[in-house]
Design goal:
Layout: H1 10-16, H2 42-49, H3 64-77, E1 81-85, H4 88-99, E2 105-109, H5 114-123, E3 130-134, H6 139-145, E4 150-156, H7 168-177, E5 181-185, H8 190-193, E6 203-207, E7 221-225, H9 227-240, H10 246-255, H11 259-278, E8 283-287, H12 297-303, E9 310-315, H13 318-328, E10 333-334, E11 344-346, H14 358-363, E12 370-374, H15 380-391
Parallel strand pairs: 2-3, 2-4, 4-5, 5-6, 10-11
Antiparallel strand pairs: 1-7, 6-7, 8-9, 9-12, 11-12
Helix pairs in contact: 1-3, 3-10, 4-9, 13-15
Bound molecules: pyridoxal-5'-phosphate.
Pyridoxal-5'-phosphate binds at residues 87-89, 113, 115-116, 156, 160, 185, 187, 207, 209-210, 219, 221.
């Protein structure tokens, strides 16, 4: 049995951290499909419930496979504690429900995942939590939006689909000056490319559905931060129930073993694709943090170890041309999902951002000709060929 060694490099942690072994001595981490756990005596049951004995009680609270997944992700993010959840959205919900209350206020980047915006605006708003949305990269706007009752700042970087980069250290400073926490949705980069806690963030949120699984199989999520904050989040989960299933935890646990390799390979392919797209006459503009033409190239270089796997670009002639290109692809999957080994293509203006008014969409820079590709693990030769055929 190994002890987790926090001096290990990330690639080692991804394979070894959090791996507990049962008395059978299995080499690969076991999947514990059980909803509850037995006690050896009435006294032990009482001690477990009283929190005096740290063992498992019930699947809504803890499960050994879920614990392994949490410990591995915790090691990769450099966090004190991790709480796994049923999905990325339940990670965000659990964080807010555990740490905030009615009458308090959140400052959020306007460039968030669509369901996250809906959650803050339409769901949490009904329960008396106020949210002010500010442009993702405008530090003065974050500062101006702060109120005495602001308890949390919430950002996503790089943003979807325009890959805007939020300066995590600068926004953390604004949050802390106002007595608030900074939460960062680290879904697009994963700890393989970016570790928000090292830049001063207090909370990291994941949709494990994306790159942590990495092969488009299961839903999952996680919240990371100090042991003190995460015990509150776990408390909400125990009570309210959006816990991660052991099967999904096992898939994500094993998915993380190849996270570093996948993120490096998919980022390298995305950079190559972005450079190639910049040379195509029918492409008006390319959005990718690894391109020197990106407005925050220098910040991205400081904050991320690679550009990530999401490339967006604008084609001439708006929606008609964009849809024609999508319909002509033979390799890329037409789906709004991302973080898979299979490359995907989507038209944000008519899908993920379709519910926003055309004016708000234009203000957010999401044009009718914009397309987003999430680069997978197919050969970049075939991806470029597919797009070249579709562009012509
Ligand atoms: C997908 C996604 C979510 C939501 O995650 P689910 O697992 O689908 O609930 C949250 N944030 C970002 C950035 C995402 O891409």
């Amino acid at each position: 049995m190994h002890d987790d060694n926090l001096d290990w490099e990330a690639d080692t942690l991804a394979v070894r951290a959090g791996g507990q072994r049962s008395a059978f001595g299995e080499h690969s981490e076991a999947l514990y499909l059980t909803s509850s756990f037995v006690f050896r005596s009435a006294g032990e049951a009482a001690r477990r419930f009283a929190g005096e004995d740290p063992g498992n009680i019930y699947g809504r609270f803890t499960n050994p496979t879920v614990t392994m997944m949490q410990d591995r992700l915790k090691a990769l993010e450099g966090a004190e504690a991790c709480v796994a959840t049923a999905s990325g959205m339940s990670a965000i919900l659990a964080t807010v429900m555990a740490l905030l209350r009615a009458g308090e206020h959140v400052v959020a980047s306007a460039s968030l995942f669509g369901a996250t915006v809906q959650l803050f605006q339409n769901v949490l708003g009904r329960f008396g939590l106020g949210t002010t949305f500010v442009p993702a990269t405008d530090l003065a706007a974050y500062r101006a939006a702060m109120r005495p009752n602001t308890r949390m700042l919430f950002v996503e970087t790089p943003s979807n689909p325009l890959t805007e980069i939020v300066d995590i250290a600068a926004v953390a400073e604004i949050a802390h000056a106002g007595g608030a926490w900074l939460a960062v949705d680290n879904c697009f980069c994963t700890p393989a490319l970016q570790r928000p806690l090292a830049f001063g963030a207090d909370i990291v949120i994941h949709s494990a559905t994306k790159y942590l699984d990495g092969q488009g199989r299961v839903l999952g999520g996680a919240v990371l931060g100090s042991a003190e904050l995460m015990s509150e989040v776990l408390g909400f989960l125990r009570t309210a129930g959006p816990s991660l299933s052991p099967f999904n935890a096992w898939v994500i646990l094993k998915g993380m073993e190849t996270l570093g390799l996948r993120m490096q390979a998919q980022s390298a392919a995305a950079l190559q694709l972005a450079r190639w797209l910049e040379r195509q006459p029918r492409v008006e503009r390319v959005y990718y943090p690894g391109l020197p033409s990106h407005p925050q190239f220098a910040l991205a270089q400081r904050q991320q170890s690679a550009g990530g796997a999401i490339v967006s670009f604008e084609v001439r002639d708006g929606r008609e041309a964009a849809w024609k290109l999508i319909d002509a692809t033979r390799l890329l999957s037409i789906t709004a999902n991302l973080g898979d080994t299979k490359s995907t293509i989507t038209h944000p203006a008519s899908t993920t951002h379709g519910r926003i008014s055309p004016e708000a969409r234009a203000a957010a820079g999401i044009s009718e000709g914009l397309l987003r590709v999430a680069v997978g693990l197919e050969s970049i030769v075939d991806i470029e060929r597919d797009l070249a055929d579709s562009l012509s």
